[in-house]
Amino acid sequence: MSDKSKKILFMAVAAAFFILPWVVPAVLGSKFVFVRNYAPGAAVITGMIFALVLGNPFSKFTGRISSQLLGVSIVLMGFGMDLKAVLAAGASGFACTCVGIIMGLGLGYILGKVLKINKNCAWLVSVGTSICGGSAIAAAAPALKAKAGDIALASATVFTLNAIALLIFPLLGRWLGFTENEFGYFAALAIHDTSSVVGATLQYGAQALEVGTTVKLARALWIVPVTLFIAAFVTDRAEGETKQFKAKVPWFIPGFLLAAALVTYLPQLFSGVALIGKITTSGGGLLKEISKYLMILTLFMIGANLSREKLRELGIKPLIHGVLLWLVLSVVWCLAIHFKLIGIQ
In this predicted structure, what is the pLDDT of residue 221? Predict the structure, then answer.
């Protein structure tokens, strides 16, 4: 297949994942809702297959734009959510995210020592697993002064486990009888990357998506203190070298909160103007609906970012480290939620 044909096919499939999950259930009725429910998993798998079989003809573009599209999707989702409910969900998940990150970093450090993995690679896998996947790896790598090879290994490990979680977690949640709120917490606490939390909860239900995204964003805020901790106590330095602290909050978190604040308080500020309240409510609902399908498109691009080169980079020890760490944390949270050890309504 020519390069031009690959590009046309890629764009057609990407467009289909944005349009069909939106249009098919609306046009053909509720019995076709499964098209929307299973689209996130299908998008990732299709993207991976496309990249491995035909190659991603837009690899540089999708690698750069996918994280930006995810951020835009999360901000758009905020326009359909009540800020008070968002803050309540984030606050209720604060203790859980704190415990999970301490467990993840501690166990990751021990496993790295036992498996005799390069220190920087072990820390990157641990940070990516404990906080928020690729974003946490990108934030921690400069603090650790990690080499490109370590970053690639950690990223490939986390990406692979993210794809697996997106596919199997909704099935596991239904088998265990989790409510949408419970599954939202489970996904937010046990899946690495925000994109996979979104994809998994989107398959489970609207409430699961809202809870999962909110708690996951609260978990992502830990990038800042963890990066500062790594810079202060983990990074190797030459004698006399000063400590450098550099950490930033992902832009979509304040964007999400600002969007939720606008739709929550704008109608109250202009309570005497009914039209503003109506426009805010209907407009926010539309933007939130668009965000779901933009997320599905983004998941296709994320799947297409996998390549044969990345698979070859995936060393066995970092993979074992990542799998063991992920399994332990997932089982702990699964049991805690299943036996009602976490207060979830």
Answer: 80
- The phi, psi pair for 250, rounded to 5°, reads -55, 135
Helix and strand numbers, DSSP H then E, in the chain: 17, 0
Q: What DSSP character marks residue 243? A: P
The answer to whether 14 and 303 are in contact (CB under 8 A) is: no
Is there a contact between 137 and 151 (Cβ–Cβ < 8 Å)? yes
Are 214 and 189 in contact by the 8 Å Cβ rule? The answer is no
C-alpha count within 13 angstroms, C-beta hemisphere, residue 261: 7
Average confidence (pLDDT) over 20-48: 71
Residue 219 near residue 93 (C-beta atoms within 8 A): yes
The more confidently predicted of residues 124 and 233 is 124
Which letter does DSSP use for residue 192 in this model?
Answer: S
Residue matched to tokens 């790896």: 137
C-alpha span between 214 and 208 (Å, rounded) = 10
Burial of 33 by CB count in 10 Å (0-12 exposed, 13-18 middle, 19+ buried)? middle
Letter string b/e over residues 94-111, b meaning 16 or more CB atoms within 10 A of that residue's CB? eebbeebbebbbebbeeb
What does the block give as tokens for 239? 């004698």
